[in-house]
Design a protein that fits this description.
- The complex is a heterodimer.
- Chain A folds into two domains: about 30 residues, no CATH class; about 230 residues, Orthogonal Bundle (MetI-like fold), CATH 1.10.3720.10.
- Chain A is built from 14 helices and two strands.
- Chain A has a two-stranded antiparallel ribbon with strand order 1-2.
- Chain A is globular, with a radius of gyration of 24 Å.
- Chain A starts with a helix and ends in a 7-residue tail after the last helix.
- In chain B, α3 packs parallel to α7 and α3 runs antiparallel to α9.
- Chain B has a single domain, classed as MetI-like (MetI-like fold), CATH 1.10.3720.10.
- Chain B is built from twelve helices and no strands.
- By secondary structure, chain B is mainly α.
- The chains are: A mainly alpha, B mainly alpha.
- The interface between A and B is large, with 88 and 97 residues.
Chain lengths: ~290, ~260
Amino acid sequence: MRASLKSEKPFAIGLPALVWQALFFYLPLALVFVSSFIRLSNEGKFQGFTLSHIATFLNLIYFKVIGASLLLALSNALLCFLVAFPLAYFLAFIAKGARNILLFLLIVPFWTNFLLHVYAWFYVLERHGIVNTLLQKIGLIETPIHFLNSTFATMIMMVYYYLPFMVLPIFSALESFNFSLIEASLDLGASWNSTFRRILLPLTRKGIIAGFFLVFIPSFGEFAIPELMGGERHAFVGTVVSQYILGEGTGSLGSAFTLLSALCLIAAAMLLYRLINFLLIPRMRRG
Amino acid sequence: MVREGKVARAGALLVTAFTYLFLYVPIIVLLVFSFNSERFPSPWTQFSLKWYKELLHSEDLWQSFRNSLVVAGSATLISLVSGICLIFYASQGGRIKRFLGMFYGNLLIPETVLAVSMLTLFATLKIPLGITTLILAHTVLGLGFVIPIVYARYRELDPHLTEASLDLGATPIQSFFKVTLPMLRPTMITTSLLVFIISFDDFILSYFVAGSSAQTLSLYILSMIRSGVSPVVNALSSILLVLSSLLVFIYFSFQTRVRIVP
């Protein structure tokens, strides 16, 4: 039996997926890398190597753009975590019979086009939107507040869209977490705080880290939400990249900036990975 | 210390309640105003279906809707079939573990980077942008979901079942189609739904590789939003919400079955 299994290996049938992946994932990435370093004539002819595309972006303005994107991604991931952990805790340990319906209600907006949610928030935050109307009716404010076109509106929409990416991994980590460990720790005299700090957080670390990066990495390239909700006040990596890449004849500049910001993202992600592990793993107390 | 546990529970309850309010208040407002006879910001006047009627007559909308269906359908089909072929190769004794790492990058890199590199490829090879490039790009996204998920499920299957079928005289190919594939079916269905909806709702990849000829639903919605508030968008939202609830419902019903059958 074993022998017959090993004798036929129709490798060709496994190929399509591998070829597709090589042609449309790795080749394009390699092209971005290469085109950041070559000069092309107007007709697209190769004219030699250059560092000038990269050098264009070694400028404080562009590092501020990258910094703004990193800050956006980091604050989004932190806000999502602060909301997602209690929510996932509720779903895993308290919700019981309501758990499935709550999970269902969490996924439905997530599976609906996010632009429609951007649009929905216009209704809520607009000058004549429900928040302003409500606040005016109660008498808290007299003139409507400008919520739109602000960092506040951007962050609301970012958290709204990315929250499930954080909740689901933390939820599945908590679901497989043995709740009696908490009871044991409390029985043995630990306070709730130190149980949380030294048992619950470290043991659900994998879910937290997965959620963190599932939010952090895509948020870095986000440009639609900041542009629609935040106005054109701040430039983010996605905005700059799309302007260069979609512009006439600035493709290689776009590639160079993509490469540069991807390198910054990787460096930041590695640093954050170490930092989160450092924060979540409890250290032995001496004495 | 018991009191602190109660505080934690109350806190979790509070956050959950606020989150669901946060998630659903905008949606409910949107739905309510889709039935209002007057345009926003005028307050509620009268129940009306006129925005839904207007939606039905919008030729551009249905064209972009069809485009999105074609792209999402093709991307789902291609990524699923080629993924299953790879699993078939594994089931016949091929070792694919070394190739798996190749597919994790698809979801790890920011979609903007993926979109930029795709566009660079298409520009270099002078492939005209349109439905074809959309399908090519969305399939890459699909493979990033299909292969890791289906392979993980494949590894969880009980190898004794395949061995039994081989002992009973099935050829390895028969055993794949009659034993392995039926056991993978629920995972294949849920993963297809996931890939379909991700492609259908995708914005970033489409924004870069659609070109000017092929508009997807996301791009159409973007142009509608940019031209200002219109109750037609509300009507469209409520229809899409119903559709996605239906898909999530199907997804969930298969997920629980996966959990019940070990």
